[in-house]
Amino acid sequence: VSGSLYLAMDCEMVGTGPKGRNSELARCSIVSYDGDVVYDRYIKPTNEVTDYRTRWSGISWHQLVKAMPFQHARKEILKILAGKVVIGHAVHNDFKSLSYSHPAVLTRDTSRIPLLNQKAGFPEKDVASLKRLTKEFRLCSQTGKKGHSSVEDAKATMELYKVVEVEWERTLASK
C-alpha cells in the first residue's frame, strides 16, 4: 500500500432483508492522495441480496457471484485504513457498513465542511451532495451511465478535500 497518509474511501451498498431495507457493503474503493487506486473490490454481503439498487450502486448480481466474503474484505480494508487520515463524503455511512469506527481526529467528512459549502456558495449548514459539490467545483465525478462508480466518487472526494485542505487542516489544528 502506498505511503500516502491521506486516503479517500467510497463504498457502494446493496439492500438485504425484507424489501432490501438493510444496507450492506458490496463494493469498497480507496484512493491515495494522488488519486491512485489503493483498493477496489466487490464484496459479497453476509446476507442474501434482495435489492441490488443498481441505479445508484452500479452493482448487479454477476459482480457479486465471485466477490470476496465480507469478513475477509473487512480485514483487508481495516488494515489499509489503520493510522491513516480517511476522507469520505458522509463517510460515517461507509464506516457503519464496515462495522467500524475510525478515530475522529483521523476522519475528514467532506459532507460536513462549512468551508467547502462557503466556497461553493451554498449555505454553511447545508449537507450538499457529492454530485452538487463536484459540479460546483467542476470536478469530474458521477458522469458514468451505469450508476455510481465508487472509484470515481473516492477520487472526487479527495479532489474536494484538496480544495480546502490547507485552511481546513489549519482550523482543525487550532482547535
Automatic annotation (TrEMBL):
Gene Ontology CC terms: nucleolus
Organism phylogeny: Eukaryota, Metazoa, Chordata, Craniata, Vertebrata
InterPro entries for the chain: REXO1/3/4-like (IPR047021), Ribonucl_H (IPR013520), RNaseH-like_sf (IPR012337), RNaseH_sf (IPR036397)
Gene: ISG20L2
Domain (Exonuclease) ranges: 5-170
Keywords of this entry: Exonuclease, Hydrolase, Nuclease, Nucleus
Source organism of this protein record: Oncorhynchus kisutch (Coho salmon)
Protein name: Interferon stimulated exonuclease 20 like 2
Domain of life: Eukaryota
SUPFAM superfamilies listed in its UniProt record: Ribonuclease H-like
SMART domains tied to this protein: EXOIII
Subcellular location: Nucleus
One MF annotation (Gene Ontology) recorded for this entry: exonuclease activity
